[in-house]
Amino acid sequence: MAQIKADEISQLIREQIENYESKITVDEVGTVISLGDGIARVYGLDKVMAGELLQFPHGVAGLAMNLEEEQVGVVLLGDYTEIREGDEVKRTGRIMSVPVGKEMVGRVVNSLGQPIDDKGPIATSKFIALERIAPGVIDRQPVREPMATGLKAIDSMIPIGRGQRELIIGDRQTGKTAIALDTIINNKGNDLICIYCAIGQKRSSIAQVVKILDDAGAMEYTIVVAASASEPAPMQYIAPYAACAM
Predict the structure, then answer these.
(1) Residue 7 counted as domain residue
(2) Which CATH number does the domain housing residue 52 bear?
(3) Band of residue 109 on the pLDDT scale cut at 50, 70, 90
(4) Which of 59, 62, 182, 235 is 20 to 30 Å apart from 99, CA to CA?
(5) Are residues 84 and 112 in the same domain?
(6) 64 and 116: one domain?
(7) Whole-structure pTM value
(8) Are residues 56 and 123 both part of a single domain?
(9) Rounded to an integer, what distance in angstroms lies between the CA atom of residue 150 and that of residue 154?
(10) Is the dihedral of CA 182, 185, 190, 193 positive or negative?
């Protein structure tokens, strides 16, 4: 039987003490005190910021909206059917923002920038707040370059410049989506990043749009932000903000 030497034991203890690292994680947490219609009342988050993103159980996010003296009104972003009174809520420390960058191109994401196309996570560390002050008129670049849609009637009568806004309005089944999709497809190779934001549409319709863009090779320079009709109202509400931020 091997003998245990006191010097070896003391040496091992000394090495353990020298290599010891104390890791402490501090989180400010609150408690759900009431819940209804996608709105949660949270107690205990005294330092929460207006518009801050909060983390609920089961991967559900929340947006701090109504800051009161003793509680916070939070809009739940996602499926809140599993949330119960007494659940723990954590602060994230950042204002509501979405991931941005070249890594987003070619992906289908929800209003929070989370991928929903089963192609794995998006490896980006850049985030931009949903609501921020727009640059002034002097700071903006002038409209100098045209953006061709590929539709002769539009390009000849009402040409669109890069940086302009154009409203496509019409009754149902008159070709509004077709104009937008044709414009995206016709701009292949023109150094443009296209973002298609679908709000309140059926999932089957969104899947059909993605397939059309994919078959035409347009997903290589396109981001699709989807907030279908089955999504909660808050997710549909922030969808256009997320698309503009991207």
Answers:
(1) no
(2) 2.40.30.20
(3) very high
(4) 182
(5) no
(6) no
(7) 0.78
(8) no
(9) 8
(10) positive
User: CB-hemisphere CA count at 13 Å for 141?
Assistant: 7
Nearest CA-CA partner of 105 in 206, 204, 221 = 221
pLDDT of residue 158: 86
Q: Per-residue pLDDT tens for 178-229?
A: 988 999 998 888 888 899 999 988 899 999 999 999 999 889 999 999 998 8
Residue 170 sits in the same domain as residue 205: yes
Give how many domains the chain has, as a whole number: 2
Tell me the one-letter amino acid at 38: G
Do residues 149 and 216 both lie within one domain?
Answer: yes
